[in-house]
Design goal:
There is one protein chain. This protein is mainly beta and 586 residues long. The protein has six helices and 52 strands. A hairpin with a 6-residue loop joins strand 1 and strand 2. The chain is elongated and about 85 Å long.
Length: 586
């Protein structure tokens, strides 16, 4: 497994087109420089990495020709606008087709292929067999021009971009729109398919759209060293996922899965929008993200909206942090385990997420945690008017054929479960199942607050080796059914299985606990509904980025209603301040 950057590394980048000196810093995962808005900085990438032998090819359906006189043999022809888009020479020689332009790209070189913004292509890069020079000097397929939408690539029956050659990688895909235009009549291929039995490494897909299709990163190998590594999806949009009939390599077939990870090493999913409409022809029962056997997964700052099956099926652990979930059925952490870890997921983190209005579907569970060791579930907020289901469920499942159910050394702390429903329902805030092995578990400093329509605050047999402390419990209405099986709060704190200390039966007064992403959209001048916020988020791109339309901003608005401090996006820690105290060298 590769070692990723964990510290800020500042680099000095000189622009030889003038006297301007640009100071940037590397993204903590990709190792590549970012601009001040958090996008990868192409000018800085080219300035500091080895692009001296790079070819540059332009592609345009509106003003390209079949056989331009020559590709460009130097990146000196490139300039950049204020948003960081590539700009072509005034009298650019562009190819008219992606296939012809791709023939000029060389394997092992940091060549660059640029598609004109606003153009429509009835072809795609499809199966790509070329790789970049290094993880710093990557091949780039992106867009150019001063205006226009992302280039639209109608996929037909082709893959959008697929990598399957062994030991390939060092690629950037940025600012493209892949559309499965035959989705109504054909079982179309994926927007992005990486690996499938080969070692692929250092792939960044950023600021792109996958519409009416899906994406997959996977390996058929059982050898860790052959699993894809260094794969990053940032600031993309997965819109209206179609049905995936499966290919025999990925489990959970016959469900729509926006993004599948299967046997991956280090893997970043950051600030993407997973958008699932629910009406008309749009498919239901979708796993927005399926992450089995991806032990190095980082899932941060994403928006998950409207999945009617599973918003997140993260069965490999890793870190799930500061994401916003709204109107989804269930979000899973743990479960089947990885090929390396057996049935138990170790070290998983579910932290700083916000869950609003859990959809009443098959399970209706905000956080479903299964077969965990040394896990952390902390500082999450579960809020809304949920009619049935669970807030946090620590559960059992047949883990890849195993009959051993484990909950060990797991901490659940500083979470807020707040449900205002006053109807007759079966909302259970925190639920336990029976575990074969259980010890060292801590449930502390949580607020569990339900309306009088709620069922129970804590339900199910509390596993052995679990201690409770400092929790604040409350449910309006009858006090006889707060706990199952204990009943009243007095019975609960005196019971041996609760092992409770320092808790209270307190109705907590918050600043504004009924805040929603809809009311947040209203403060931004948008329509004050969930869909109103999604409309703003769908307009995000390198050309028009607004931090207010992100998961982090929506979460901070809801957190403030509960008196919680704001959290900054993780990537901001990797952007150099105006006056750094020192410079490092890559």
């Amino acid at each position: 497994m590769k070692i990723k950057l964990t510290k800020i590394i500042f680099c000095l980048f000189l622009s030889f087109s003038g006297s301007k000196i640009s100071l940037a810093a590397n993204h903590y995962f990709t190792g590549l420089p970012l601009d001040s808005r958090g996008f990868h900085d192409f000018q800085a990438i080219i300035d500091y990495a080895d692009y001296g032998n790079a070819r540059v090819v332009f592609v345009s359906t509106s003003d390209g020709v079949a056989s331009p006189s020559t590709p460009y043999y130097s990146t000196s022809v490139l300039t950049f606008d204020s948003n960081g888009f590539f700009q072509a020479p005034e009298e650019v020689q562009a190819y008219s087709s992606i296939a012809t332009a791709a023939s000029q790209m060389r394997s092992g070189y940091a060549d660059i292929m640029l598609l004109k913004r606003g153009d429509t292509f009835n072809e795609t890069p499809n199966r790509w067999s070329k790789n970049g020079y290094s993880s710093r000097a990557r091949q780039i397929i992106a867009s150019y021009g001063s205006s226009g939408d992302r280039p639209l690539l109608n996929m037909g029956l082709n893959l959008g971009f697929a990598y399957s050659a062994n030991n390939s990688g060092n690629m950037i895909i940025s600012g493209l729109h892949f559309y499965a235009d035959l989705w109504e009549t054909e079982e179309v291929a994926r927007c992005w398919q990486i690996a499938d039995g080969a070692y692929i490494h250092d792939i960044l897909i950023e600021d792109s759209i996958c519409r009416r299709s899906n994406a997959s990163v996977q390996s058929n190998s059982t050898t860790l060293a052959e699993w894809p590594d260094g794969i990053a999806f940032r600031r993309n949009q997965f819109i209206e996922t179609r049905r995936d009939l499966g290919d025999g390599a990925v489990p959970e077939v016959n469900r729509e899965v926006s993004l599948t990870a299967w046997r991956i090493q280090d893997y970043l999913i950051e600030e993407n929008l997973f958008y699932k409409p629910v009406e008309g022809n749009r498919h239901l029962y979708a796993d927005n993200f399926y992450g089995n056997n991806a032990p190095g997964l980082i899932l941060r700052g994403n928006i998950f909206y409207g999945s009617r099956r599973t918003a997140l099926s993260n069965r490999s652990g890793g870190t799930t942090a500061n994401n916003f979930f709204v109107e989804n059925d269930v979000s899973l952490m743990g479960g089947h385990g990885s090929a390396l870890a057996g049935a138990v997921i170790s070290g998983a983190k579910m932290i700083d997420n916000v869950f609003q209005d859990v959809h009443v579907g098959d399970e209706a569970i905000a956080i479903l945690a299964i077969n965990l060791d040394n896990a952390e579930i902390s500082r999450n907020i579960i809020t809304g008017n949920q009619a049935t289901g669970n807030g946090i469920r620590l559960s059992t499942e047949n883990a890849g054929g195993s009959t051993t159910y484990n909950l060990t050394n797991t901490t659940v702390e500083d979470n807020i479960i707040y449900n205002t429903d006053t109807g007759t329902n079966t909302v259970e805030a925190m639920v336990f199942s029976t575990f074969t092995t259980s010890y060292g578990n801590i449930i502390r400093n949580n607020d569990i607050q339900l309306g009088d329509g709620g069922d129970s605050l804590v339900s199910g047999p509390v596993p052995a080796g679990t201690t409770f402390s400092g929790n604040r419990f409350y449910k309006s209405g009858s006090t006889s059914d707060w706990f199952n099986p204990a009943g009243t709060y007095a019975t609960w704190i005196s019971s041996s299985y609760a092992n409770e200390s320092g808790s209270s039966n307190t109705q907590v007064t918050y600043t504004d606990p009924t805040r929603t992403v809809g009311s947040y959209a209203g403060t931004l001048g948008g329509t004050a509904t969930t869909e109103g916020f999604m409309t703003l988020a769908l307009g995000q791109s390198r050309a028009s980025w607004n931090d207010n339309y992100t998961a982090c901003a929506a979460n901070n608005y809801i957190r403030a209603g509960f008196g919680k401090d704001a959290i900054s996006p993780e990537w901001q820690d990797a952007v150099a301040p105006n006056s750094p105290t020192g410079l490092g060298v890559i």
